[in-house]
Amino acid sequence: MVIDQTDLFAEVQDTAAQELAPAVVLLRRFVSTSPLIDLIEQVAVSAPFRHMRTPGGGRMSVAITNCGEMGWVSDARGYRYAAMDPESSQIWPPMPQSFAALALQAAQVAGFGSFQPDCCLINRYVVGAQMGTHRDHDEKDMSHPIVSVSIGLPAVFVWYGATRAGPGVPMLLQDGDVIVFGREARKGFHAVRRLSPRVVGTTQGVRYNLTFRRAG
Ligand code: MD6
Ligand code: FE
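Output (structure tokens, whole complex):
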């Protein structure tokens, strides 16, 4: 696979970081996303998007793939990271260098220091898809932050924090926005509300979300 490594930083904007909750940092319009979409499409040639099953047996409305040394997977046995794509029994496609560079740049600008992700989980939403309230705690070392990049259609992300209770802090994530969270927020609960045509303004198109993690 040929992966284009054009200089993403030419496109990176110098936006001010906003702290939405302690250690939850939003970088608005941080990155220009069209080179990212091309790379996502290349990853999906080798590791197609699929609707995974939750341990409870439900079908996720979000379609998922991964690139990097490790991939996040879900099935009847639970949630875990795996070095092989269970659909193909092949390793996941390599993480494009520009993805790793973007994750590092965002972590640094957001005040989390150095970050070398080994997993990029790629979520794909169409109108009607959602991500229920959850927290990310399948990674071995929680001292690493998570960097999350929104691409394409807007979506309402809700930050709940230490408990699932309460109304949460909603924020509209738009194309090019990046969220970084770590430290005391690392195990915080969060969700993505169902993409409604009213909020999104169309029934066409997709939202991608890249979440960079250090899993192993
Ligand atoms: C999404 N994001 O934005 C779903 N998880 O589509 C997440 O679940 C998420 O944005 C951990 C860290 C950042 C995130
Ligand atoms: Fe998450």
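Residues 13-213 form a domain with the Jelly Rolls fold (CATH 2.60.120.590).
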